[in-house]
Specification:
This protein has 13 helices and 20 strands. By secondary structure, it is an alpha/beta fold.
């Protein structure tokens, strides 16, 4: 359990009484003010990571930019931090376009994705001057040509399937043959020619994304050559996908090592004057956030179940792709009598498990339980299962906490009812 603190954002500490302190704020104080469960973001950690990404990319390839994959944490306040740190935003849908604009992004720095973009989303992108639309298929081209007004052009990239797999869960692989995203090079070629002939579209370059939670650097590098073979373009968007550290067994590559490999391949295969874009999501936000729950039940038996007041309503990562998390009782990370337990949620599914097997010290009803590394895709996929009210997001910085997303109310749950 001694390693648990190392999974919280840098600068996290234990107070004299053992209470977890994140962003300078005590977990018990945060809970007293905002209730449980609560998703706490260490704002400084978020900003540092954004700067690290931008700096490490620029030193390796000057004509480059980082766009944050909003889908990893599509909350306006998080997008605003990225904008303030000079990053662009990758969006994958109409709602993310609108929150990105609300966050103050320069629309020219937005990249729109989607394998099934609707007419409405294409119209929103064109109307708001979104910088790059990543074409996934020929229907995207039909829609864009029908939408872009006379005399105007829309810059596009074409998404390529590089035929690369990586050692990650099948549900988050995207670069393999058979992926629903993008086109294999042979199918991309005629579409590129069509776009180059279009008076409404401007063919700017190619896009590739191998998958998510990738803990090795080779697949990223391998994805570059298949794209390069399609010819020279002004822009190459090499996607996101770097893995994050969820448990002490994880050893994700440092951003610098990942970029050494990726940009090394770019130097080998891509035109030196091209612009390179990367789109980190998970690794940008995951480790900056912590979820704090209240223990509601401790049930002893063959297995000791420690049930908390959240679960798959605020963290679908476990059910979706078996992501392992760690956890500790606030105030007793290194406490006595550690017992191997299964931490479960409050939802009516046996799959509603937060941590399958973790040592907790004397867990009791009323304890606070902290789960680190919940910044990626947890807010994104939070839901109302079993009438769950989606949980608040709090930014903690230098001992000050501010609410950036409020908890849903009971009234919110019926707000869309029309009868
Ligand atoms: C096109 C694209 N870019 C970037 C990302 C971000 O990936 P990650 O969160 O693994 O960095 C994704 C995630 O699925 C994606 O689909």
């Amino acid at each position: 359990m001694a390693g648990l603190l190392s999974l919280f954002p840098a600068g996290s500490a234990l107070a004299d009484d053992g209470t977890l302190v994140v962003g300078g704020c005590r977990a018990d104080d945060l809970v007293a003010e905002f209730g449980t469960p609560v998703l706490v973001v260490d704002e400084q950690a978020l900003r540092s990571r954004a700067r690290e990404y931008a700096d490490e990319l620029t030193v390796r390839w000057a004509n480059s930019r980082v766009v944050f994959a909003s889908k990893a944490f599509p909350c306006t306040a998080v997008q605003r931090v990225m904008v303030e740190e000079g990053l662009g935003l990758d969006v994958a849908g109409g709602g993310e376009i609108l929150t990105a604009l609300k966050a103050g992004v320069d629309p020219g720095l937005v990249v729109l994705h989607g394998n099934a973009k609707s007419d409405e989303e294409i119209a929103l992108a064109v109307e708001h001057g979104i910088g790059l639309v990543v074409v996934d298929n020929s229907d995207d081209v039909d829609r864009l040509e029908a939408t872009v007004p006379d005399g105007q052009t829309q810059d596009v990239l074409v998404r390529i399937i590089p035929g690369v797999t990586a050692d990650t869960h099948a549900h988050v692989l995207t670069g393999h043959e058979g992926s629903k995203f993008g086109l294999v090079p042979a199918d991309a070629e005629p579409l590129i020619i069509r776009i180059e002939r279009s008076s409404r579209l401007r063919m700017r370059g190619l896009h590739v994304h191998v998958g998510s939670q990738i803990l090795e650097v080779e697949p990223f590098a391998e994805s570059v050559a298949p794209v390069a073979r399609l010819g020279d373009f002004p822009v190459y968007d090499l996607g996101g996908g770097l893995g994050a550290r969820y448990t002490w067994a994880d050893n994700p590559p440092a951003v610098g090592d990942y970029l050494d490999s990726l940009i090394g391949a770019a130097r080998e295969h891509l035109p030196s004057e091209a612009e390179i874009i990367i789109e980190p999501g998970r690794s940008m936000v995951c480790e900056s956030a912590t979820t704090i729950y209240r223990v509601t039940t401790v049930k002893h038996g063959t297995i000791t179940f420690v049930a908390v007041d959240g679960g798959m309503g605020d963290n679908l990562e476990v059910a979706l792709f078996e992501q392992r998390f760690e956890a500790g009782i606030v105030g007793r990370f290194d406490g006595p009598d550690p017992e191997r337990v299964t931490v479960v949620g409050r939802h009516c599914e046996s799959g509603d498990v937060l941590v399958d097997g973790v040592d907790l010290s004397r867990p009791e009803v009323g304890d606070l339980l902290a789960v680190p590394a919940t910044g990626a895709y947890c807010f994104t996929m939070s839901n109302n299962y079993n009438g769950n009210r989606r949980i608040p997001v709090v930014f903690a910085r230098d001992g000050l906490a501010r609410l950036v997303v409020r908890r849903e109310t009971w009234d919110d749950l019926s707000a869309r009812d029309v009868d």
